[in-house]
Fold this protein.
Amino acid sequence: MDVMTRIERALQTALARTGQPGCPPRLGQAMHHAVFPRGARIRPRLTLAVAAACGEDAPAVSDAAAIGIELMHCASLVHDDLPCFDDADTRRGRPSVHRAFGEPLAVLAGDALIVLAYQTLAQGAAAQPLRLGQLVLTLGQAVGVPCGIVAGQAWECEPAADLAQYQREKTGALFAAATVSGAVAAGSEGEPWRGLGAALGEAFQVADDILDATSDAATLGKPVGQDLAHARPSAVCQLGLDGAIMHLRHLAEEAVDAVPSCLGQSALRSHILTETLRLIPQELARTAA
Amino acid sequence: MDVMTRIERALQTALARTGQPGCPPRLGQAMHHAVFPRGARIRPRLTLAVAAACGEDAPAVSDAAAIGIELMHCASLVHDDLPCFDDADTRRGRPSVHRAFGEPLAVLAGDALIVLAYQTLAQGAAAQPLRLGQLVLTLGQAVGVPCGIVAGQAWECEPAADLAQYQREKTGALFAAATVSGAVAAGSEGEPWRGLGAALGEAFQVADDILDATSDAATLGKPVGQDLAHARPSAVCQLGLDGAIMHLRHLAEEAVDAVPSCLGQSALRSHILTETLRLIPQELARTAA
């Protein structure tokens, strides 16, 4: 089974709870809307690639780790889109959850997806229960206080804050959890994998800056030119387009160097280089080669 | 150390994450506002009472189980109070979190408290890691899909639903998790304790109906007479005040009968009878005696 099929099936299995007796139908629909159809699934693919490189011995645990990360990512998008934050009308080319289902169900769907991430971890880790604690803590570190994505978002409510830095930290936190969780799910030590995740998070942010400057809204499924319009710091504004592409290439190489020693080290390194450059359109990536 | 001191200290320890470097100060303040000063702490006291009755052997695990339940309860109050739900100005006699800190921080504080519940469980269960999976699943069952408090709240967004029933289920879900988690934290089987939690949840709901009909807002810290004003089904409307008090007494006895066989069965039974009747003012409880 290819990795995308594996991820979609595991997500379907996790969301199957919404079809069980007693679940309010519209809540289940709102949760599905937040998770399907698929995005790029960059984070769970990263978790599974790291687990494989570490000699994955418990696929159900890796699946749970990967899906836990993705559900948390989807939950954060639902809440970030709410009227009191970005007030976004669209996401992945479709109405945002609160536009499609109303604000109450968007709040509740986000809450339920956060909880579902942990339900999924606990159920998936049943065969290797000693790995659960670290997986729960890794996810919490990426999402909660003091420095997870919720905290990153909350810096927007502070009178003085370096928002650009916190935005980047916010992206990096979940990427770091993706790599650390992949290692933990495979029975390896997690912390040596944090640097790889952080480097990839930064690369992803630069790629996002490049797409914001070069794509059209139809391709991207969300408004473009937002960095320039909102005078947000962006790698493209700071370095120019070519400079940003070179920077992405540099970050990809940093990420490759950050892969810890493991069984599948060389395969993972080439996977990471390819995947990072695939974040931007091929014709731009060629500039970087 | 008395049980209330124990709970407050464990909550302070859990919330200490908000004082760590990198945490946005106002998010930390909003989370504290949601959790302190103390409410009655009925659910965590119940968890600890059950753990004790089961021959508690790992106090850090019982603390984590109790605090996980209470943090989840506080999170649900913060989100329930939001303008898109109850739009409540006050809670426990003080401004609700969104009134005090704004809507964005109320959404984020609720999210962070949900995550903190799981962080607390994972950290507290480190000494007994094989108990963590069941604790995580028990909490998820009480809060998430298909039938937890989030789902209960979401029934308000369905075109046709028996809201009274779902409100009661919503209350019952967290009480059931409180008793089940107490047993699991002490290394006992959890499911035999679900009936006790459900009975106590119903008793709590009836007590709440009685207080809504008989208290004043200053004593209760929230508006009173809401059941009559909103034509909500209430034990007092259905049975009259004396009937509701008799019903509460009956439910307390049902709860006493639902205590499974355990080391501290008889102590727990008298604790439950006393505590349930303490939910309403003494002069009313005497009517029931």
